Amino acid sequence: MTKYVRLDKYLADAGAGTRSEVKKMIRSGKVRVGETVIRQPEFKVASVSAKDGGDAVLLNGVPVLAQPEFVYYLLHKPKGCVSATEDRQEKTVMEYVPDSRKGLFPVGRLDKDTEGLLLITNDGALAHELLSPGKHVEKTYYAVVQGVVTPDDVQKVSRGLDIGEDKETLPGKLEILNTHPESDPPKSEIRLTICEGKFHQVKRMMHVLGKEVLYLKRISMGPLTLPENLKKGECRLLSEAEISALKNR
Ligand code: URA
Question: Which of left, alpha, beta for 244 (phi over 0: left; psi -120 to 50: alpha)?
Fold first, then answer.
């Protein structure tokens, strides 16, 4: 159902100016809706752009596109911030999002010391779909662990592990990328793909195998992959292709 908003809000949300600046523009006759000059800031227009069936809103003859109702950001979360919208003591992931609108939140959590891909949106329905345990959305992590990961560990992960929950973990895919038995302490680099999101799940799975996670980074979630050129702390909007891949998975 189309939502209607005041013309001054439509323009301000679209970045045409502050609410009081756009009111002045409207009153001075600079704004048209279709062919008609509208001088009332309270005039109601559809909150979507003309290409999506809304009104053609023009400022000085130039079309102003509506701010989409839902936005999707991909953040390369750095270490040292918490996956929350607010926190009294800690820096939150929202500080890296260049958008101050209300209602944005991170989809799921990465630990304070975990880096990598985090989706930030205001689309509650999509977030619910992605987080719902029954949907089995795959998440892949790169980790450096203390200890030498073995083919036997790979087998155990593929069968499911008892990490102290009611049920064992669902089968996961553990890949050994490199082992450094000679280093002090011995270390391994691994990739782990799981389709659940239990609290500290990767760290707990590795702990059960006698390995401690030293470094953890999420590199993909469902169809989204952390882009190589997105630096830690950088955030960008998802492309249309990424959004539809997420919605149609
Ligand atoms: N598993 C963990 O242990 N930590 C994370 O941040 C994500 C998955």
Answer: alpha
